[in-house]
UniProtKB/TrEMBL annotation:
It holds the Pfam family adh_short_C2. One of its GO terms (biological process) is monocarboxylic acid metabolic process. InterPro entries: KR_dom (IPR057326), NAD(P)-bd_dom_sf (IPR036291), Sc_DH/Rdtase_CS (IPR020904), SDR (IPR050259), SDR_fam (IPR002347). Belongs to the short-chain dehydrogenases/reductases (SDR) family. The keyword Oxidoreductase applies. This is 3-oxoacyl-[acyl-carrier protein] reductase. Its EC number is 1.1.1.100. Keywords: Oxidoreductase. The keyword Nucleotide-binding does not apply. One of its GO terms (molecular function) is 3-oxoacyl-[acyl-carrier-protein] reductase (NADPH) activity. It comes from Niveibacterium umoris. It is an enzyme of class 1 (oxidoreductase).
């Protein structure tokens, strides 16, 4: 569904009128094409700062330099900043937080369109002193508020919460959050823990097998595309009613189509049999298929409730149980579940959907420590308003509200969600597990 306001606000002939009417003026968002290359931050003017005593500043500097960023100590006359990286790991007391103001405030007027901010803090749960823990937690509020301020320029801000010894994990996150791929992810927290991980590189999924459910269209099709760009061979799964589109996606990404209703009782066994025969297992499992059947609870028939729970929740746990039990999910595997901001904040008419999507948030948190011994990570992505056939069905006024009520004043594209899924899927993201991260353009309402 085309976004007319985005077009009018970016057309010289109509931009003035849009401003006069007081309508939101979304900027055109930057997006990357194709796979990561060896220098994903090439040409980006990057400043790295730290509160005194920070433990992560060297890792940030190294990550930015290795990603090809143009690191400068200060902005030259007329230069603007594309990426700001700040190490706040040493902030332990309220007065330390002034370092955030000191670094960011003078630079914000010289922030480029579509700029990226990444702040690194200590993990409050690792700090015994309540004031130190509260100080670290405060940084999350700073990042969220900053994201809301800079969103008007298409810029995003995110937070890495670092467990002791996890500095090396910043390399992959800087490539994602410091560059154009982090288009619609803002105000989010990524918890990083120490784990052996390869250095990020181009086409890191070469030789890997991915499964994407609901791959015929929307976010699933974009995810199949992104994972294939990174080198994965993708098994594309969808229902019989979507057969034609499924075969098109599979052909486009050079993958394998599999017609399967994931909620059918024999679906886990059928998927297992397919993988055993065709690919000898899976490295990246993306549980993307999902349905909505909206009704207020008073008007919701039991079959509508059951259908949503079956596809969005039960099927996922059943498939995982089967693939884990028979060893088809490989060591160092990656599991990504598509949750929703409805699962974070709830939504009118979506008690069934919100229940299923909140369950996935709990599921990844509970599974992560259980899978860690095998090097498998599991995370959830919670999209906000994404322009897909699912949201095209929303009535006009509600659709407009969904689109605009975020810091970027526009809906995201399926590819924006696929970028976040791909970040979780990469071998370099070994220290990121149990997270739920929203791809919502920093929604203004809800959690
Ligand atoms: P979509 O409706 O455009 O596509 C979903 C795909 O899943 C379809 O191809 C459909 O045929 C397939 N599918 C449905 N039931 C299936 C089943 N039982 N077995 C196999 N395949 C099945 O949806 P989308 O907008 O691309 O959303 C993808 C995921 O992201 C869903 O889990 C959805 O709940 C979630 N999500 C989307 C948005 C959004 O704004 N679009 C927001 C939050 C969450």
């Amino acid at each position: 569904m085309a976004d007319l306001l985005l077009r009018l606000a970016n057309d010289r002939r109509s931009a003035g009128l849009i401003r006069k009417l007081g309508l939101p003026t979304p900027v055109r968002l930057a997006r990357a094409e194709g796979a990561y290359d060896d220098a994903p931050l090439a040409g980006r003017v990057t400043l790295v700062g730290a509160a005194p005593g920070g433990l992560a500043v060297d890792a940030l500097q190294k990550a930015a330099a290795e990603a090809g960023a143009t690191c400068v100590a200060a902005l030259a006359e007329g230069q603007s900043a594309d990426t700001l990286l700040f190490d706040a790991t040493a902030c332990r007391a309220p007065a330390d937080l002034a370092a955030l103001h000191g670094f960011f405030a003078p630079k914000l007027r010289r922030l480029a369109r579509n700029a990226r901010v990444l702040v690194v803090s200590a993990d409050p749960s690792e700090l015994a002193d309540p004031v130190a823990a509260a100080t670290a937690r405060g940084i999350e509020g700073f990042v969220r508020a900053l994201g809301k301020e800079i969103g008007r320029r298409g810029a995003t801000a995110n937070l890495a919460r670092l467990a002791p010894g996890a500095e090396s994990q910043l390399a992959g996150l800087v490539r994602f959050c410091g560059g154009p791929r982090c288009t619609y992810v803002s105000g989010q927290v990524f918890r990083l823990t120490s784990a052996p991980a390869p250095a990020p590189a181009a086409r890191q999924l070469a030789g890997k097998v991915a499964v994407v459910t609901g791959a015929a269209r929307g976010i699933g099709a974009a995810t199949a595309q992104r994972l294939s760009e990174e080198g994965a061979r993708v098994v594309c799964v969808d229902v019989a009613a979507a057969r034609d589109a499924l075969y098109e996606t599979a052909a486009r990404v050079g993958g394998l189509p599999l017609v399967l209703d994931i909620a059918a009782p024999d679906a886990p066994a059928a998927l297992s049999a397919f993988l055993r025969e065709k690919t000898r297992g899976v490295d990246v499992l993306v549980h993307n298929a999902g349905i909505t059947r909206d009704k207020t609870l008073a008007n919701m028939k039991p079959d509508v409730w059951d259908a949503v729970i079956a596809v969005n929740f039960t099927a996922i746990t059943a498939i995982d149980a089967e693939l884990l039990a028979n060893g088809l999910l490989h060591d160092s595997g990656r599991v990504v579940c598509l949750s929703s901001v409805s699962g974070v904040a709830g939504n009118f008419g979506q008690t069934n959907y919100a229940t299923s999507k909140a369950a996935l948030i709990g599921y990844v948190a509970a599974q992560a420590p259980r899978l860690a011994a095998r090097g498998i990570t599991i995370n959830a992505v919670a999209p906000g308003f994404i322009e897909t056939p699912m949201t095209a069905r929303i009535p006009l006024m509600m659709r407009e509200a969904g689109r605009r009520l975020n810091a970027l004043s526009q809906g995201g594209q399926p590819r924006d969600v696929a970028e976040l899924v791909t970040f979780f899927a990469l071998p370099a993201s070994a220290g990121v597990s149990g997270n739920t991260v929203r791809a919502c353009g920093l929604a203004l309402i809800g959690a």
